[in-house]
Amino acid sequence: MVAASPAGAPRTRPPAAAPPPGAARPADGAPIAGADVSYADIVAAPKVLLHDHLDGGLRPATVLELADAIGHPLPAADPAALGSWFVAAADSGSLERYLETFAHTVAVMQTEESLYRVAAECAADLAADGVVYAEVRYAPELHLETGLRLEEVVEAVLAGFAAGAAGADRPVRVGTLLTAMRHAARSQEIAELAVRYRDAGVVGFDIAGAEAGFPPTRHLDAFEYLQRENFHFTIHAGEGFGLPSIWQAIQWCGADRLGHGVRIVDDIAVPAEGGVPALGRLAGYVRDKRIPLELCPSSNVQTGAAGSIAAHPIKLLHDLRFRVTVNTDNRLMGGTTLSGEFALLAEAFGWGWSELRWFTINALKSAFLPFDERLALIDEVVKPAYARRAH
Ligand SMILES: O=c1[nH]cnc2c1ncn2[C@H]1C[C@H](O)[C@@H](CO)O1
Ligand SMILES: [Zn+2]
């Protein structure tokens, strides 16, 4: 038996990198080799996104304009070069270095106007990509540098999402997750902020940032408070660190979902000669309890949590019927979109309509929306669209 470690293979960029947001992909309408979908099919299909960072999804042109207005220096001067810079700098093989690139996006998101604009463009970009429901997260505590109050940050972003969704060509609904930074000490405050805005569009809570050395149990008070409030939360765990982080997130903190959780494969033994993989106690628990994994393939390759798209544990976890969802993490740093992620998986594994539907329904089952609203999206939006295509 060998552990199915995600970091075993040498790290390589995916051969056909996903296009930057808005960019046309070559041979748009032609089926992806080995799959029954084209890139245009994937864009057209209704999709659901549970793990996307607001400060990781800006348009490069917007970063340039906002930086210019406040005199913030950037490493490139035109949108294409800046987009490439973000992808290359984030493609570092380490979560810590990947996170350094956020200095530039956070720097230009320090006013209500800029937060509103970034949120509105985010909703518009997700709608254009065929996302019908998204949960977008950010850390309010990172946007106080010019004197905004936490409430002003939250309200500017909520207003931006509403305006962007209202003006979009395709219907999209955007829920917000408020993130606390795991190295800081504001999680209780941010958890209370999230609960205060629960009827205004904030649907959950999260912690993010460097994982090694910052276990989720540092924020136990916040998680216990959220449970007493019957609120929802996910925890970034099992990305930059392994099984202990996942175990704490679930068994100490009570996370509803795992942000990434990809290193759960360290608890799965795959027989070298083929045969049935053996799940350890934690992996078995995660699968039995249907705990959703917010997998982010391109991001995992960039931070070194996976060797390549082709070697990504998503294949094993899908085959073992874990509750897997597909996500972007950071569209700017990954040069990706949700359709781009699905296209990479179609190229690597031949996945097409039926897997796209499975991942989409998994995501809706895992969303922090009331049950009746999830069901309505499944029955009225997703199933009819896929009934025409998936078998
Ligand atoms: O994948 C991630 N892991 C941990 N932290 C992350 C990841 N992507 C973004 N972040 C951090 C950087 C952002 O400033 C913060 C809030 O969105 O969350
Ligand atoms: Zn993330």
What distinguishing features does this structure have?
44% helix; single chain; binds 2'-deoxyinosine; TIM Barrel; 391 residues; alpha/beta; binds zinc ion
Layout of helices and strands, plus pairs?
Elements: E1 2-3, H1 39-44, E2 47-53, H2 60-70, H3 79-90, H4 95-100, H5 102-107, H6 112-128, E3 131-138, H7 150-166, E4 173-181, H8 187-196, E5 202-208, H9 220-228, E6 234-237, H10 243-252, E7 257-260, E8 268-270, E9 278-279, H11 281-288, E10 293-295, H12 297-303, H13 314-319, E11 324-326, H14 331-334, H15 338-349, H16 353-366, H17 371-387
Parallel strand pairs: 2-3, 3-4, 4-5, 6-7, 7-10, 10-11
Antiparallel strand pairs: 1-8, 8-9
Helix pairs in contact: 2-3, 6-7, 8-9, 16-17
The structure holds 2'-deoxyinosine (2ND) and zinc ion (ZN).
Zinc ion binds next to strand 2.
Question: Can you describe this structure?
Answer:
This protein is α/β, with parallel strands linked by helices and 391 residues long. It has one domain (32-387): TIM Barrel (Alpha-Beta Barrel), CATH 3.20.20. Helix content is 44%, strand content 13%. The protein contains 17 helices and eleven strands. The protein has helices spanning 39-44, 60-70, 79-90, 95-100, 102-107, 112-128, 150-166, 187-196, 220-228, 243-252, 281-288, 297-303, 314-319, 331-334, 338-349, 353-366, 371-387; strands at 2-3, 47-53, 131-138, 173-181, 202-208, 234-237, 257-260, 268-270, 278-279, 293-295, 324-326. The protein has a four-stranded parallel beta sheet with strand order 2-3-4-5. A four-stranded parallel beta sheet has the order 6-7-10-11. Strands 1-8-9 form a three-stranded antiparallel beta sheet. Strand 3 (131-138), helix 7 and strand 4 (173-181) form a beta-alpha-beta unit. It is globular. The two termini are 35 Å apart. Residues 1-24 have low confidence and may be disordered. The site of 2'-deoxyinosine has 19 residues, from helix 4, helix 5 and strand 3. Zinc ion (ZN) binds next to strand 2.
